[in-house]
Prior knowledge:
globular
Amino acid sequence: MIIVAGIFTFDPAHQSAFVAAAGRVAEATRTEDGCISYEFFADLAEEGRVHLFEEWEEEHHLLAHFEAPHFAEFSRELDAIGIRSRDVNRYHVSRYGPNRPS
Length: 102
């Protein structure tokens, strides 16, 4: 399993544009082979800051996602919004289970 997690920051005046773009890419991405989840979450403490969380079955699924037209369109939309920063990382998970034992 591959987990992708990250943070985007941008001028809060562009919040609605970011939300619209993120909604479009998330909806399209969730239909891709190997996508387990693809979500954006607004930061509760800071306007203009959004968290990304993705889960993928295999590396090749994520690499195919990077070639999808909706991913390219999302990248163009982020450029137009004027993203201040993006810090997105990929994690390869070898095993997982509940956070706390039952």
